[in-house]
Amino acid sequence: MVCPICEKGKITKKIVDVVRHGIFVGHFKAEICNACDEQIFNSKEAARIESKMKELGLFGSEKATIYKIGGNLAIALKSSVAKALGISSSSKPVIITQAKEKRLIVELS
Questions:
Q1: Minimal CA–CA distance to 62: which of 74, 72, 76, 52?
Q2: Do 58 and 23 contact (CB within 8 A), yes or no?
Q3: I need a surface site. Which of 34, 100, 104, 108 has the fewest CB within 10 A?
Q4: Distance CA 52, CA 39 (A)
Q5: Could you give all domains of the chain from N- to C-terminal order, each with its CATH number?
Q6: pTM of this prediction?
Q7: How far apart, in Å, are the Cα atoms of 70 and each of 65, 73, 96?
Q8: Are residues 30 and 45 in contact, defined by beta-carbon separation less than 8 angstroms?
């Protein structure tokens, strides 16, 4: 079977490790392209991955909590996200604001 993504490589079936935010989710069956390394999961495996990610609290957008501390606001991250990114209470991130898009970008050095 030819890869539906790159249309060059051949697809082989393998067991792959799925990792999200640096956290191991599990081993799952996938079809892998030998040219572009695309991983294709059938609907059954995709449902298994989604279920496991929900169980681990890793599925979907990451929500944060905003607290008022004095005259400032503080954003709290889920510990799994902080751990995966190597963020600790001593981290000194740079925050870039994109007011028009209502977006914050956090860069870690």
A1: 76
A2: yes
A3: 100
A4: 18
A5: 11-55 (no CATH), 65-107 (2.10.260)
A6: 0.57
A7: 16, 8, 22
A8: yes
